[in-house]
Design brief:
The chain is α/β, with parallel strands linked by helices. It has helices at 14-24, 44-50, 102-108, 142-159, 174-185, 213-233, 244-253, 261-272, 285-293, 301-313, 322-330, 360-369, 388-391, 395-410, 413-431, and strands at residues 33-34, 41-42, 56-61, 66-73, 79-83, 112-116, 126-127, 167-172, 193-199, 238-239, 299-300, 347-351, 373-378. The chain has one domain (14-431): 3-Layer(aba) Sandwich (Rossmann fold), CATH 3.40.50. It is globular. It starts with 13 loop residues before the first helix and ends with a helix. 47% of the residues are buried.
Length: 433
Amino acid sequence: MMKLSHATTLSRSPIILCVYLVLLSPVYPATIFSSIEKVGNITTAELIKGFGYPVERHTVESSDGFLLNMFRIPKMGPAVLFTHGILLATDTWVLRGPKHDLAFMLSDLGYDVWLADTRGNCYSHKHKTLNDTDEKFWDFSFDEMGTFDVPVLIDYILERKPPHKKLFYIGHSMGSTMFFVMCNTRPEYNDKIHLMIALAPAVYFNKLLFLPDNASMMTARSMRMALRIAQEGLATHELLPRSRMTVGTARTICGPNAITLPLCHFFIASFFGISHPGDMGQIERRYVGNFTSVIPSGTSIKTFDHFMELAMSRKFHRYDYGSKGNLERYGTRRPPQYNLTVVTVPTALFYSRGDVLVPHKNVERLGSELGNLVSLDLVAKSTFNHMDFIWGKDARKMVFERAISLMESHRPRKLKIRLIRSEKLRNKTLLQP
């Protein structure tokens, strides 16, 4: 049975107060959100359709029984798999539309775009045999996501893409974490990736929220204490699911004309990394309500707890079950560390000095340990924050264009020629009377 480690100290930090308030709030599960511009309640598929693109929905079963959701924007070109960060979902990739969102930009270039939802979020909330009310359903972290989910998603895509034998991978935050886990636990999948694009990769956490080391450590301990209280005292195993209440609150206090918008912005900037505290330069006011409507989207308490373990240990390792539990699972008293040198996939890291969740020195440490780092891209703007890598006003110029350039340089030439010929033949056929 999944248990959280007991923390010894409970901080009086306002961060923890916010965690307690959120955990103790009643929620009413839903899988829809309210969009801006009076579009109404809309899903990822409806968003994609609304912008004029074709879309498919796929359900993939992981080897341990989770039913994983993927949305596809079909094209003939190389496949690219997008994976989102913690407490997010696939709709985060398609909120603004063509020329603004990376998914649409790649589709316009002929890439076959696949958007994956991690287990436990509002779109991947089912299991073959377990109910979401079962404790065992929530006994997972990014370890299981990388070991069981990412490999089966890759295989599912490639099976539908002959003669393609590889795909591109784009991971934001935890999406990158899962990938590096996979390369350790399933190293054969190194050979199935053209290029890995890691946006604000969440691996090392020497500091949290720009706090000094001691304060970061205390904050991590306190957060784990709050989670343990929620789990054991309230029998809660799901963390921050998307609900009608959270969507309605976001729409009310984070609307473009709301008097509370500055307070809303400061909160989401500090805790979710949307734009920068005190500087809304990277976020357009008309999008704030839309962004906050899709955060949070739910995950397991254990997933968040695993990240807090990394923040406390300053290492990248498997989940810590305590000495006895570790001996039973791993054969060692301490959880094994992931070996980043075995990541032989060509990898590009994008990071910034303004990221409140993933400080730049931690990404540089990650880059120094990877087995095949091909690019380490520091965003020039010092206030570029964690979610700006997806939603920032300058994301296209500062991140997307560079990422696309790297992908094009790793795109198989023979495959490009074959696809160009196929497209010319198709167009010729269409022009015949």
